[in-house]
């Protein structure tokens, strides 16, 4: 069952159903032969960008390490799948298989791959460390969407300026709230009121839950510092 999805900026969601699977049409198909996949350029580009993110992006590296410590080691070939998706989503987390889906037809730039992988790894981290009831409890989904929007870089000022939103004093909170509501509406057939109510009820607690970053990473250097702090915290705990 698709637990969560990352909408593509600027695309409107259609009104829908069925736990979000319609957005990921390749989820239920038989795998293609290796040759057919290799010949498919989108797939190759997706794999190359994914490898680059996992090797060099501090957000992703911190999350991978944190998951390993929580007992959920992520393997590239097992836990990531590059697929064609509906045009309104960039990625999703499939909690039934613990797989992250990367929408190879919608992810066009390395910076977008970095954000989508980070966003979905936050869902995977939440799935690993907490008993998230993705389907029956919309508040659980809301909490993970708030954290993913807050910690993935979805709402850094530069991203928002690119979307022409200026002058908001509580810019981060406003952006996180909006994106969490949009993400819920993308994957669940619930009313806007239901999504807004769920987000508002858990907002403060989940917005302030900064694990495993310890801070809101507003930039790559913030994320690098968070990664260093995380490694040092780990060494300190190992010596206790």
TrEMBL record:
Keywords, alphabetical: Hydrolase, Metal-binding, Metalloprotease, Protease
Record InterPro entries: Peptidase_M76_ATP23
Record bears the keyword Hydrolase: yes
Documented EC number(s): 3.4.24.-
GO cellular component: mitochondrion
Biological process terms in GO annotation: mitochondrial protein processing; mitochondrial proton-transporting ATP synthase complex assembly
Main enzyme class: hydrolase
Gene Ontology molecular-function annotations: metal ion binding; metalloendopeptidase activity
Family: Belongs to the peptidase M76 family.
Name the record gives this protein: Mitochondrial inner membrane protease ATP23
Organism of derivation: Nothocercus julius
Organism taxonomic ancestry: Eukaryota, Metazoa, Chordata, Craniata, Vertebrata
Underlying gene: Atp23
């Amino acid at each position: 069952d698709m637990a969560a999805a990352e909408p593509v900026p600027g695309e409107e969601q259609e009104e829908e159903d069925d736990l979000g699977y319609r957005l990921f049409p390749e989820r239920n198909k038989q795998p293609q032969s290796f040759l057919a996949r290799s010949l498919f350029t989108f797939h190759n580009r997706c794999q190359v960008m994914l490898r680059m993110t996992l090797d060099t992006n501090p957000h992703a590296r911190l999350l991978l390490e944190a998951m390993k410590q929580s007992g959920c080691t992520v393997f590239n070939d097992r836990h990531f799948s590059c697929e064609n998706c509906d045009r309104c989503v960039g990625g999703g987390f499939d909690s039934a298989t613990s797989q992250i889906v990367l929408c190879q037809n919608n992810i066009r730039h390395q910076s977008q791959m970095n954000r989508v992988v980070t966003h979905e790894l936050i869902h995977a981290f939440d799935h690993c460390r907490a008993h998230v009831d993705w389907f029956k409890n919309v508040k659980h989904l809301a909490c993970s969407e708030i954290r993913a929007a807050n910690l993935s870089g979805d709402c850094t000022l530069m991203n928002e300026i690119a979307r022409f939103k200026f002058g908001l004093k509580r810019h981060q909170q406003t952006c996180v709230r909006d994106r969490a509501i949009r993400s819920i509406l993308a994957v669940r057939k619930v009313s806007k009121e239901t999504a807004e109510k769920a987000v508002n009820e858990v907002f403060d607690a989940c917005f302030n839950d900064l694990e495993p970053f310890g801070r809101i990473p507003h930039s790559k250097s913030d994320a690098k510092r968070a990664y260093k702090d995380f490694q040092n915290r780990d060494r300190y705990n190992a010596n206790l």
